[in-house]
Amino acid sequence: MSAASGGKIVVGVDGSEPSKAALRWALRQAGLTGGWVSAVISWDAPPIYGWEAAPSRDDLNTNAAHILGEVIAEVADDQGGITIGREVANGHPAKALLSSAEDAELLVLGNRGRGGFSKALLGSVTAYITHHAACPVVVVRTAV
């Protein structure tokens, strides 16, 4: 099934402005093609040694789901009729997105996420995915 006939469009969401722009783009594309959007957020437990107050896996999962819900509510508020699936994955974002996109027609990402190098043209996750995805990738760039 092609994106022109209702295919799955995976979009990476992390709460950053570029990920919001990517979700907006993916929703417009789904509206044009009759596709549906799978919004994916990923979290990975930080390596914390000897810290008694480490967040639980449930807390990390709940927080990620909350961020995803907030972004969808903000961005997709006016996108009536487009199906938006939600996926909260545990693991490195690049691997989670590639896994989710195995059956996708298109993978949409912001040019960079929440990483520390704010002047980078591409974030590390986006750069990795553009080289390893099995489907076409759209990178939505926002002003730095």
UniProtKB/TrEMBL annotation:
Pfam families: Usp
Span of domain UspA: 8-141
Record SUPFAM superfamilies: Adenine nucleotide alpha hydrolases-like
Entry-linked Gene3D superfamilies: HUPs
Family note: Belongs to the universal stress protein A family.
Protein name in UniProt: Universal stress protein
Natural source organism: Saccharopolyspora montiporae
